[in-house]
Amino acid sequence: MAWPLFWVFLLGQIDAPVGIVGPMVVAIALLVSAERIHRAVWVNHRYWFTTWRWGRIAASLFVIGMVLKLATGQGA
Question: What is this structure's pTM?
Fold first, then answer.
């Protein structure tokens, strides 16, 4: 449920005009979030832990970026 709301938060941080894309992304993200809440509460045996799945990928990319930054000598 947190990932779709995170996308809404990121979209709110954009200063440039987003036209129809902004409201569409918000609507889709809220629908996905509602579906995930329903799945977590009513169909819990089929709930996927997306945060863990994508969190591991994001953490891996962060670690790889930090290692590359240190390897090139640009680290603080």
Answer: 0.51
